[in-house]
């Protein structure tokens, strides 16, 4: 696996955390990492492939997700770090409009099992934060 550098300032520990989640998940058949922060996976149950970009932000903005999409146009999932991290409503809408999943550590691992991984978790209407959602 490539351990290069990235233009997004993602710490090695964050990348390795995501790699451990993916590498040990029962629904991941194959895992390949490139460009330091991009993970290509094949899922077992859905028999599909996902391109996941790892970023690190306490509050994910629309500007950040737009940069990710510009740098990695094939990305269909953006993972943004710790379970306390959130995303703005604008970032969430930007991703939903493009069928890009937007996940933090608290929502990511369970979602790997979901068929519609690209939709992302239900977001709180005011902040875009999945931890504030009232939907189960």
Describe the structure.
A 5-stranded mixed beta sheet has the order 1-2-3-5-7. A two-stranded parallel ribbon has the order 4-6. β1 (28-34) and β2 form a beta hairpin. The protein has one domain. 29% of the residues lie in helices and 21% in strands. The protein is an alpha/beta fold and 136 residues long. 34% of the residues are buried.
Domains (count): 1
Order of helices and strands: HEEEEHEEHEH
Quick check: average pLDDT? 86
Overall form: globular
* Spans of at least 5 consecutive residues with low confidence: 124-136
Number of strands: 7
* Neighbour order of strands in the largest sheet: 1-2-3-5-7
Q: Sketch the major β-sheet.
A: 5 strands, mixed
- The SS-based structural class is alpha/beta
How many individual helices? 4
Task: Determine the fraction of residues in helical runs and give it as a percent range.
Answer: 25-40%
Cα gyration radius (Å): 14 Å
Distance between the amino and carboxyl termini? 36 Å
Per DSSP, what share of the residues sits in E-state strands of 2 or more residues?
A: 15-25%
Task: Give a concise summary.
The chain is α/β, with parallel strands linked by helices and 136 residues long.
Question: Which terms summarize this structure?
Answer:
136 residues; alpha/beta; 5-stranded mixed β-sheet; two-stranded parallel sheet; 7 strands
């Amino acid at each position: 696996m490539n351990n290069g550098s990235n233009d997004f300032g993602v710490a090695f520990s964050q990348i390795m955390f995501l790699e451990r989640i993916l590498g040990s998940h029962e629904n991941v058949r194959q895992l390949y990492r490139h460009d330091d922060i991009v993970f290509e996976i094949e899922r077992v149950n859905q028999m599909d492939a996902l391109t996941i970009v790892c970023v690190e932000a306490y509050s994910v903005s629309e500007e950040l997700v737009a940069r990710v999409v510009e740098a990695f146009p094939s990305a269909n999932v953006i993972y943004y770090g710790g379970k306390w991290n959130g995303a703005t409503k604008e970032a969430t809408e930007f991703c939903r409009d493009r069928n890009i999943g937007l996940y933090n550590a608290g929502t990511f691992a369970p979602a790997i099992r979901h068929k519609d991984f690209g939709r992302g978790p239900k977001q709180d209407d005011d902040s875009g934060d999945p931890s504030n959602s009232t939907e189960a």
